[in-house]
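Submission sheet (multi-component)
Chains listed below:
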Amino acid sequence: MTVNETPQDAKPGGKPCQLHPQSMCPAFGSLRILSRIEGSHPVMATDTGCLYGLTFVTHFYGARKSILAAHLGTEELMAGEVVENTRAAIEVAAQEPGCKLIPVVSLCVAETAGLPEEMLPKRVNDAEVVLVRVPAYAIHSHPEAKDVALEALLKRLGDPKGGPKEDKTVVLLGEVFPADPLAIDALLRRIGVENTITLPGRSMEDMRRVARAGAVAPLHPFYKGTLQTFRSWNIPVVGGAPVGISGTYAWLKSIGSLLDLDPKLIDQVAEEERAKAQAIVDAQSLSGRIFVTGYEGTELAYARMLVEAGAEVPYVSTSIGADPLVLPDELWLKAHGTQEVIYRKTLEDDVRALDRYPPDLVLGTTPFASIAKERGIPAMYFTNQLASRPFFLTGGMAATIGFIKQTMERSPRYEWMVEFFEDGS
Amino acid sequence: MVKIVRDLADTSSYWAALWTMCTMPDVHVICDAPIGCFNLVATAIPDYTDAVPHIENVTPSVITEKEVGGTGTGPAVQRTYEGLRDEGLLEGKYLIVVSTAESEMIGSDLSDLVTQLKPGTTFFHSESLTEDEHTGRDRTLQWLWENYGAAQAGDVEVVPGLVNIIGATYGNFNQPSDIAEVKRLVEGAGGTVNVIFPEGTLLSNIADLAKAQVNIVMYKEFGHTLADTLGQPWLHAPFGIQETTDFIRRLGDWLDTREQADAFIKQEKKTTLQTVWDLWRGPQSDWFATTSVGISATGTYVDGISNYLGQELGMQIAFVAPRPRGQGDMNNSDVRKILHDRPPTFVYGSINEKIYLSEAGARMTNFIPAAFPGPVVRRSIGTPFMGYRGAVVLIQDIVNHLYESLYNFLPVDTAYANQRAGQGGANGAPQGPPRHQGNVTGNLPWQTEAKAILDAAVDKLPFLARISASRELQMRVETQAHDRGLGEITPDLAAEVLEMKSE
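Outcome: structure written.
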């Protein structure tokens, strides 16, 4: 399935019972990344309701940052003032102290009306102006909008000739828990990597510098456009991610061969990591049936780790579309007992699976987690509880498995709550 | 005229329509929307405004490129309808199709299409590109009445003593508490609550609105058109002592229960309102005259809070920024400038004002949530801002924040801060005071101009904070002087240290 197909088309011939697609408004993925960059002052081009909702979530999950927008209502649209008002908002943003970047985030209504890039300035004072087009009707999921935003930034800022080529620098691609890159960096330095840079991050300088790196390692599988940009700079892409036992082992080997590092050293470190990971799983293995059903686009990797730790994961669903980048994880999962992997999922898909494979724990979207809790099944919002914890290498593995174990032990509380509220006594 | 928005405070009429209609469980809405307009309105935001996990009775048509590019949204809405029907989700429900900014943008008018769906299905053109949430809520309430209630209302007789409360919808700050208080006041005045509309009733019961002798409209921003249409006398919900007293008396007059209303007021003075009287007679109220308050919220809240705290209790109202913004009202850039330059002791507002205070580093200012946007749970009915109980909650909150401020001004031995030095406050503790504080003897002389710079820096702070802050700022400068071995404080040094602080 490609990015542009509608959820209703997902099962051709089947009856259209996919009613409630599950994703945060796709555009938020881009705003989250764009609002967190130091010196970045986003300007939004959209209608009032969209602006309200996206600013609301950005102020909750993105950054404590004032957000400007062009007013776009019937009057402005009729008068063709979309460009004029957006330019005016850009001028105001440029006056913020330390303003270095003005991402212009163009959403459904502005995209439908038309916002020609050549009508916007490329620079105002010290600030780069970068147009990011993320209409929800075309992007479909929140993770994929992160890719759109990052690709737009890198295309403008990436500077392959701005300094010496850094052959032994690895770019870690993905929004992860802050301690994760530290652990990955430490491990990579042991095998001869000299530097790592995490994207998306808070520094604009990083976005210039990554164009001179030796390799890019996507930690998440939805940065399609961003990876194309790296390929245009002749920077090779590391396959897989440093997750779990087998994943980490393969990933280290892959980096070693791409950067031409000492194979003996790689073997030694990779084996050590594998042994450490195995020891963690042996010490606190999981049992029981778990659903991984968020909308962050990272669900397959989580499922894979849980399976390695001993859990049964019959059902995995995500908001992103199927893609070669996720295929290895999907094949791995299918070979290890997973019955269904659903892309561009809807609430109805998840609920059907709840009947088909009654789970002991659900890691889901808020609507789905609440439905599971209504049945007395331990459940939590994947985004808040999992995506915000260490996950990579052995440290992440220990933290994640420990947390999952703890949650599953809480199941009597979930049962008691449902008993109490069901009969109203 | 070029129009720029900073940190929008009100949403659109599409949101208003959903947040009004979907409060009634016998309604199902198909929103003619892309995934984002469905997710934000039905899941992401009501989690944080109303603490509901998700609004279950709304389904999107899921507008994609195909619909925008040519087919229009008709087939998608038709498909969505069939899916809902086949899943049995429409049994016993009124189906309403609502337009969004994007469907309006591509000119999708589904007035004809709805006649081919479930019998009785209606289309609500939300005017989302033109109207704000307040106008939208007002129009939706009126539209619901005209389409589902008015026809049967002719047979309904007015029952003496019955009172409706109009305006209960999703996305109104503090609504459960305020409604509970208004209900208590209505009953105290001798009335009986008939329908709380629309949240708290079924669409099938809408004609019952015609039974009430009096209507209470919760908010000044919407609901009045329906109240006018219903034709009975109506009142806005009250704030503060005087307005609430007038409200109860007026209700008593209209319901012919004036004696009971007066007795209730008398009783309230000895119970609920005794707290206000005690705090007024106590030392707490002595602070009021030097307490400054800024308010950015709905017009209803701005008027109510500023009238009570300013007119009745005599606090200084530093600024008011009612939303929706009328002619001449401050916009968010104006509010932001005040909060950056001279923040008051208290700011009642949304997350927008909270962010401006963070930008300003205004830690001497107390922020009190009083408006959306911003994540907050207000489902307990114990925190009204309206009515007599609201008068108590507001004053109690202010005094407790003042206590907290005073606590934070008390000195802590600097040895603990020194011990922490190097840990960078990793335990979450605030940055300590200057290192030498308390360990230096005697006073350093300040040149007159240097003193003037200190005074100006102190003058920018809320009054209550000044004593402590002036000592802290003074120490900061003197510590620098000691470190540099200066014998007196020069204007240059004061400016260097304090300008940084006041930026």
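Remark: The first strand of chain B starts at residue 4 and ends at 6.
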